[in-house]
Specification:
The chain is about 15% helix and about 35% strand. By secondary structure, the protein is α+β, with helices and mostly antiparallel strands. Strands 6, 7, 8, 9, 11, 14, 15 and 17 form an eight-stranded antiparallel beta sheet that branches. It has a five-stranded antiparallel beta sheet with strand order 1-5-3-4-2, with helices on one face. The chain has a four-stranded antiparallel beta sheet with strand order 10-16-12-13. The structure holds 2-acetamido-2-deoxy-beta-D-glucopyranose (4 copies) and calcium ion (CA) (2 copies). One 2-acetamido-2-deoxy-beta-D-glucopyranose binds next to loops. This is Apple domain-containing protein. It comes from Pocillopora meandrina. Pfam families: PAN_1. Keywords: Signal.
Length: about 300
């Protein structure tokens, strides 16, 4: 068949072909009757045929899915999928829901379609999410920034790692780069280690002295040195009037774990953009047993926003 002829045939066939396909099943997507996505409609259109919604959605780069209001024949174009915001996927017998099946841009991949958090991108795109720079809101519906996302985690420091020493209040400082609520954080080891005593071995995250029994002493605090991760109620001390809580057990993690993922907070931590946070070595934080400590651990900091 000559190229010219095949083009003519495609032109003749395509409207019917696509209309049929979109009303039944398009590339694995199908409509979900009696359901709709609430609160993410950025455009509504009255249409003649329900299939026209498919084309309206295709015309908008930010269209991720649509609701169709059956009796009134109205398309509601959404800038999210039900995977991104499952809590907004609601029953409604008057509508049906359809995910965009063709040319859908991944959430957060273009400036016109920023995500709320890296976690929302992960929810929307699942295993297909690519680690790297994504567009997200810096504050709720405010300015848009580029952030490095790794799965649902947002990297907080830039190229330069955050380093903390083991004595003389040599905490590592970093500033949050997005305001919002943080469920937990993680530290990924980049270099260095700390000693709590000249005779005991090195550790990335704690003191290898037998007294600590494998517990860890790396603590994220706010700017007032108040422990945040782990929270103060998870910290232990040795008992006695001079003692202060400064170590903890974290099941699954040990002195030289390549990353330290803190437990999810029961009450997420509200942070403002540019708020300073600190990483402390426990004994240095409470000014106990620190004179003969040495070394420094350098890390990348990641936060998981709600
Ligand atoms: C997405 O839609 C909501 C309304 O449902 C709107 O407030 C928001 O600005 C839209 N976002 C984008 C990036 O278009
Ligand atoms: C954090 O932000 C404050 C105020 O903008 C700034 O003075 C400080 O140097 C920043 N700290 C870090 C570690 O970037
Ligand atoms: C942790 O790693 C450091 C440096 O790589 C090493 O010297 C130390 O023995 C290790 N400590 C433990 C408890 O495995
Ligand atoms: C290190 O200092 C602590 C007190 O802070 C002391 O109990 C310990 O004996 C010292 N270790 C060595 C090897 O000097
Ligand atoms: Ca100190
Ligand atoms: Ca010591």
């Amino acid at each position: 068949m000559t190229p010219k002829l095949s083009l003519v045939i495609m032109f003749l066939m395509s409207p019917i072909g696509i209309l049929n396909a979109s009303s039944q099943c398009q590339a694995g997507e199908h409509s979900i009757d009696g359901m709709f996505l609430r609160g993410h409609t950025f455009m509504t259109y009255p249409v003649g045929l329900p299939e026209m919604c498919y084309f309206r959605c295709e015309e908008e780069v930010t269209c991720q899915s649509y609701n169709f209001v059956i009796a009134q024949r109205i398309c509601e174009l959404n800038n999210r999928t039900k995977e991104a915001t499952p809590e907004d996927f609601m029953p409604d017998q008057r509508r049906y829901y359809m995910k965009r099946s063709h040319n859908r841009v991944p959430l957060g991949s273009i400036k016109e379609l920023p995500a709320d958090t890296c976690g929302e991108i992960r929810a929307s795109e699942g295993e297909e999410m690519i680690d790297g720079i994504h567009w997200i809101y810096f504050e709720e519906n405010g300015e848009v920034i580029e952030a490095y996302c790794k799965e649902g985690w947002q990297k907080i420091n830039g190229e330069v790692p955050v380093c903390f020493g083991a004595k003389d209040n040599e905490y590592g400082a970093f500033n949050m780069t997005k305001s919002g609520r943080v469920k937990t954080m993680k530290l990924i080891h980049r270099s260095g280690s700390v000693h709590c005593n000249p005779t005991t071995g090195a550790s990335y995250w704690g003191c290898t002295h037998s007294r600590y029994q494998g517990d860890l002493t790396t603590i994220i605090t706010d700017v007032d040195k108040k422990p945040v991760l782990p929270p103060a109620y998870d910290l232990k001390d040795f008992g006695g009037p001079e003692e202060k809580p400064h170590f903890y057990s974290l099941p699954g993690y040990h002195h030289n774990s390549t990353e330290l993922v803190f437990r999810t907070l029961v009450n997420p931590l509200s942070v403002s953009n540019n708020q300073e946070m600190q990483i402390w070595y426990g004994p240095d934080m409470v000014d106990r047993y620190e004179e003969n400590n040495s070394g420094k651990t350098c890390v990348d900091v990641y936060a998981f926003y709600v």
